[in-house]
Amino acid sequence: MEARPAGKSQRKRLQRQLEFYLSESNLRQDKFLQQAMDEQGFVPVRVLLSFNKLKSLKATERMILDEADKSSSIRVDRAHSCIAPKAVPVTGQDREADTRTIYIDSFSATDDHDSLRRAFAKFGKVNLVSLPRFPQSKKFKGFGFVEFSEQSAADKAAVTSSGPDLYGIRVMSKTRWLEMKEQLKLRLSRADSHPDADVAAGSASDKAENANAPENSKAEDSVSTNAATGKKKKRRRKPETGGHIHFGDDEDGEEGPTGCDSDDNQEATKKQKT
C-alpha cells in the first residue's frame, strides 16, 4: 500500500521546522547541528531524517529538499543531499539576543513549549522557547527562557511579571538574570575563601530574590478589623510567585515553532555513535 502524499498543512509544518532548526536562534546554541555542518553551513539531509520531530511529520528526503527549496531562508546544495541557512550565523554567546530574551519560572507543571509560546506571543513574535532539563531524568528544571524577535517585546513581557495575563508566571530580563548569576558566583567564591564573611549579610540567593521580585509578588501586610472586638489584625498576603530564582544551565531543551522534540539531537547523537 502506497503512502498518502503529504498535504499542504503537513508540508508547511515541515518547512517551519526546518527553518527553525537552521535559524540563528537555534544554531547559536545547538551543538549537535554545529558539529554536523560543514564549512559552508550545509547539513546532510540524512542527519535531519533521524530527528524525532521530522519522523512524526513523516518527512522523507524528497520532502525535506522540496520544502527547503521553497523556503526563503534555506538553500540546497548542488548534489541535492544537504541543506543550509542562506545566512550562516556566528555560533556562540550572542549578547544582543540576550536583550531580546526573558527568564521565566513559576509556570504550571502542565505547561509546555507550545502553551508558553502562546502565552508570550501576545507581546511579540517568539523565536525560541527553551526549557532546560536535568541530564539524567530528562525532567524540566522548573525554569526557562523565551527569546523574542524584538527587544521591545521582551521589555513589555518583563514588566508584566506575575500579572493576571500570565497566570502568575514570574518574568525578568535575561540580562538581569545573568547579572544576578554572576553576583551569586562571586559571593559564593568569596564565601569559600572566607566562610564567616557573609553570615551577617544573609544568603546570596535570598538577597537576589528580594532585590528582583516583582512588586506584586512580594508579601505585603493587609489590615482587617474584627467586627466583635473592633481590634485591627494584620494578615500576611501570600506571594504569588514560586520562590527562589533558578541559576542552572540555560542551554538545554530548545524547542521549535511547533514544539519539536527536545530529544532530537540526543537521539541523533546516539545513532551517530553506533
Automatic annotation (TrEMBL):
Pfam family, one: La
Database matches in InterPro entries: La_dom_prot (IPR045180), La_HTH (IPR006630), RRM_dom (IPR000504)
UniProt feature, compositional bias: Basic and acidic residues: 239-248
Keywords assigned: RNA-binding
Residue stretches making up the RRM domain: 100-191
Residues of the signal peptide: none
SMART domains associated with the record: LA, RRM
Region of interest (Disordered), ranges: 189-274
GO MF entries: RNA binding
PANTHER family: LA-RELATED PROTEIN 7 (PTHR22792:SF62), LUPUS LA PROTEIN-RELATED (PTHR22792)
Protein name stated in the entry: La- protein 7
